[in-house]
Amino acid sequence: MASKKMRFNTKVIHAGIEPDPATGAVMTPIYQTSTYHQEAPGVNKGFEYSRSSNPTRKVLEDNLAALENGKHAFTFGSGMAATDAILRILKSGDELVSTNDLYGGSYRLFTKLYSKFNINFKFVSMAEMEKVEDAISEQTKMLWVESPTNPTLNIIDIEAAAKLAKKHNLILVVDNTFASPYLQNPLDLGADVVMHSITKYLGGHSDVLMGALICNDDKLAEDIGFVQKSSGAVPGPQDCFLVLRGIKTLHLRMERHCENGAAIAKWLKAHPKVGFVNWPGFEEHPNHRIAKAQMRDFGGMLSFSLKGNSKEDAFKLMSSFELFSLAESLGGVESLICHPASMTHASLSKEDREKAGIPDSLIRLSVGVEDVNDLIEDLEQALNKV
Questions:
Q1: Which of 17, 26, 39, 315 is buried deepest, with most CB atoms within 10 A?
Q2: 328 is a domain residue
Q3: Which residues are catalytically annotated?
Q4: Cis bond before residue 148 (omega within 30° of 0)
Q5: Could you give the percent of the chain with pLDDT greater than 70?
Q6: Are residues 197 and 315 in the same domain?
């Protein structure tokens, strides 16, 4: 059955995955090898050296491509390695335009590393595409979009961004980490490349680091594949196996993440000690209409701030949880809490953070798949200590 004819819940289990041809194993084996026997120079079974390709990795990449309705997928040792790989197709003098509430790790990579190579970066609000277009110059070659954004949960109109990119002959890259392919498929909305930190929802169990780039264009795929092979930031087969296993329950996990996220967002919004809650499922959320149109649900990520905007109160709260773990990352089965200003977005100045809607008191939740009543009770007892 062709993967494009499968529904999503079937794709996660079957797309790109066949019984192992050597043994009939239902689960893709871990091909723990660095090199492969050749019958003669250049005569092989499709594999030469594991930096170029590995059977376990190849199955994962085929599966990821199917989940995003793409043609080509490439995996890397982390989400940042994937981000680095797509930036390598730019050259000195080029320019990239991105959102002003970009993930801190991407911001650091852009401004601290790639700016050294005479690549310019502009950060603007992407709530309205007219403002984005104003930032585009003759040097602009790429648009970089996150939606929902990290950690303010802003929604960017991917279809509108795609139209703008095509108008100006730009490459549109969408970081789809927060949504996962279960909630959103940017290629279907006109994006050129989708980036994932597989570490998060795709892996889903906080036990692997990996990233991916997915596209349909053959020339882009050729360029990305060349970078992957040449720079060598590839994942090992054990990690690929873990992600393949994690993806098989992606649809089930995302259903619960969304269900729990909605319940907790609404509970926090009604709490007298909470100042505001960022969650795209609220009708009053900026661009809620866009979120409803381009996403299948609103996800398990949210952020909130305490009344009074006290960093000290935020720290006290985060030290009072019993179930929520104070930790970086997101998208695992367990619920996590973090302080963006001092953790994920510490590379931004205080002024830049506040401009991006990240005050010192902002707290980000990655809502897991536990019983939601236990999570709410944990939130309640922690808030009672502030």
A1: 17
A2: yes
A3: 51, 103, 175, 200
A4: yes
A5: 99
A6: no
